[in-house]
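Listing S7. Sequence submitted for prediction.
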Amino acid sequence: MSVRSWFFIWMGCVTLAGCTQEQKKVVATVAPKAPVLIDPFKFHKMIEVAPGQYYDILTRGQGRD
């Protein structure tokens, strides 16, 4: 075999060895934090309608209370 053939065999082995590494996948999960209630608000509820879509329900506690 010629030097050129050995070179291509060696480059092929190096390429295959470099491609066998596994890539780490980073999965980030963000949980919604409960907000701190401001003074005039007496009740808070967070409703999740769809993944990543949240609604905050706040009431002032006026009326019967």
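Caption to Listing S7: primary sequence and predicted structure tokens for the chain studied. The radius of gyration is 30 Å. The CA atoms of residues 50 and 56 lie 14 Å apart.
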